Amino acid sequence: MSQTSFLDEIQEINLAYLLLAQRLLVEDREAAMFRLKVDSELADLLVSLNARQLTKLARNNQLICRLSQTSVHQLRKITQNPRDQGLSGLHASLLSACEAFEVFPVGEPE
User: Fold this and answer.
1) Any idea where the domains of the chain sit in the sequence?
2) Is-contact 14 57, C-beta < 8 A?
3) What are phi and psi of 100, to 5 degrees?
4) CA distance linking residue 21 with residue 32, whole number of Å
């Protein structure tokens, strides 16, 4: 796969993520903030962005979303869980809920 193709896919994922984040925040703000691991200020900003701003933000060469499970240990617990597979979704949700919420410093606009 070419670099251009990867870049196009990253930008598509970014836009899809931003649109989903907006929709989640409009539907159920508190649940969305928990799922997206964003604070109130960032939630307000995401909801306020128009289509042009979303597209501009999405056109980045880096993914703007990231895995919520950042440790290999937690990912293994989810993917190699010997428990009843009917409970695997609940187990993954509980592990995600235990993940520390990180607030990233807000930089100056460029």
Assistant:
1) 1-66, 68-102
2) yes
3) -65, 140
4) 7
Q: Which residues contact 33 (CB under 8 A, 6 or more apart)?
A: 25, 39, 40, 43
Rounded to two decimals, the pTM is 0.71
| CA atoms of 105 and 20, how far apart (whole Å) | 23
User: What is the per-residue pLDDT across 17-65, written as a single tens digit (0 to 9) for each?
Assistant: 999 999 999 999 999 999 999 999 999 999 999 999 999 999 999 999 8
Amino acid identity, position 25: L
Where does 1-66 sit in CATH, by number?
Answer: 1.10.4000.10
Alpha-helix residue ranges (DSSP H) falling in 28-87: 29-36, 40-48, 51-58, 72-79
